[in-house]
Automatic annotation (TrEMBL):
Any single Pfam family the record assigns to this protein: Por_Secre_tail
Name the record gives this protein: Putative secreted protein (Por secretion system target)
PET hydrolase/cutinase-like domain: residues covered: 30-265
Alphabetized InterPro entries for the sequence: AB_hydrolase_fold (IPR029058), PET_hydrolase/cutinase-like (IPR041127), Secre_tail (IPR026444)
Signal peptide boundaries: 1-23
Amino acid sequence: MKKLYLVLLLTLFSSLFTNDIFAQCEDITVDSLTNPGPFDVATLTEADGIRNGPDYFGATIYYPTNATPPFASIAIVPGFTALPSSVEEWGPFYASHGIVTIIIGTNSIYDFPEARAIALIDALETIKQENSRATSPLEGALNLDQLAVSGWSMGGGGAQRAAVLDNTIAGVVALCPYLTNPQLTHQSPVLIFSGENDNVAPPSQHADIHYDITPITTDKLLFEIANGNHSVANTPNGGGGSVGKIALTWLKLYVEENDCYCPLLTDELLVNPPAASKVEQDFECELLGVNSQELAIGFYPNPTKGIVNLEILEDVQFKLISPLGQDLLRGNLSGDNKQIDLSPFPSGMYFLNIEGQTIKLVKHN
């Protein structure tokens, strides 16, 4: 009788769940990709106790002070002979949208891309240690499965190489990258910006080749900015602001795994963009929604203080999502005793995605 009641209850409220899904995405629009974003930003340096990485020289971490963790993170390195100040505007921009950002210098301003790749990986180690450093404001606040890299010029070449050297990197943003004889076999979703009039790293000799040799199995996007020079993507304001909007959307979609950002790319930002002289794309994404072939799912109790029992005949995969669209937990549900444990998370509303279906769960104390 309980199973019948649960299935009937699910059927009765399925339209409400669908509305909740779309309501979750309603606030995610092109207009929401502002510079700065909605969150206040603070910084950390080595003077505040962050790690002094041996493979880079100096670092600043930008982080949101009033956003809900856990946070994704990105490491950014400048180009040949350049200082961190050349790309520093990305720090407060990303952080104001809830992405922790570490911007580093290099041990030598003459470091080539491979050394910059190693520097980025070392910067991610610093991020990981902030998640466990007892006096850090980021202690326990970082999702260490959501780490990305970025860089300008040779730093952009280094960012692409970092994904080859470290297959745990969840995303790459290459800013007018310079990399000769590239070897870029990796599976990290990669966004490449280039400038149409870049005389330092001409797209035909760098960005275009990078895009072409990245495996077709890797989600990838090339956005060439009309009349852009070598530094056109050094700030989120490049290309009339399109650089920042596309980069943020890419990270939200592929690093934070928030599918609400999919239509911003496919239906808006990449549809006849006035800032682009060329766009090449080979990626797949889908809108967070309800599968047309729905499973019969029973679940109780809801609201819950911790454990939610699920009654599903099939073995399935699940993903637990925060109200901000952040990926909190994922795994498999199998056997006769299928459960989700919300006890590690604070009270509030969560979305449980199972094989394309999404259920709203509420946790209370």
